[in-house]
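Example 3.2
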Amino acid sequence: MRWRCTRCETPHAEREPPCDACGHDALERAVAPVTDGGERDPDREPIPAGTVDTGPEYVWACPNCGREHVRNTPPCARCGNPDLEQVERNYDDLERDLAVPGWLEVAKPYLPILVAVALLVALFATGIVPPTVLPGIGPSSPAPPDAPGNGTEAAGIDLEAAEELVHERLEAERNASESRRYDEGLDAYAEYQNRGFVAVEFDDAEPDAVRADEFDHDCGDARPVGAPLVLSERSIDSYETESALAADIAAGLFSSRFGEEVRTGFDAEGLDLHVAPNGDIYIFYATC
């Protein structure tokens, strides 16, 4: 690398101002390598068009540990050696650091996790381990039988919304100590039984018998019990709102032979409504 004076452009071998020719105190790197006479070095390869040959780059290296420094500012920042020497910068280490690792090298630390996940997927796929062993995935409830009529909406009445209103009506008649939660498992059990009654009545079907413990309810050791009820005095067409329907169903449950048990004595309940083809309203109430 050659240095030149910024005033008179006299070349210098080292960057050690002031200039030997004019005494100026600023030197800069030469744009192209020059000889001591100020001419271009004929032994250097031609500079490609559109580029500037700045020559080799020098750094100050510690001869003891090899740490490179941008300036000659001893001692060494790594080992404290008091001497630094000027050397041409080598980019071999930089090229090695910039090399892109292969996918296997990147994935190597995660291989045990990937193998464990693949093993679990294989166990679930082959059925050796059922998915129900996972937290939050309980046993699936039996699908309710097909039944004529409708269990979601009839005569403009949302039957599922009416079910919720029935629970609210029952809760309104209970003391705080008698309050009970609405259980989705009991709701599924009630739906199966209710559809079964309608299917037997109108289709002469024979639905499969089920046990209450086949449904994912939260009754624990308590055994769920059920009570069927049919409203035949008034057709579904006579109700204009879900609230009016819910009021009649709640009153019917309180006046049934299970009335006192509907009011007290249990912790959870579920309910299903189904409108038969003739307009009768079939209710199944389950509790535990």
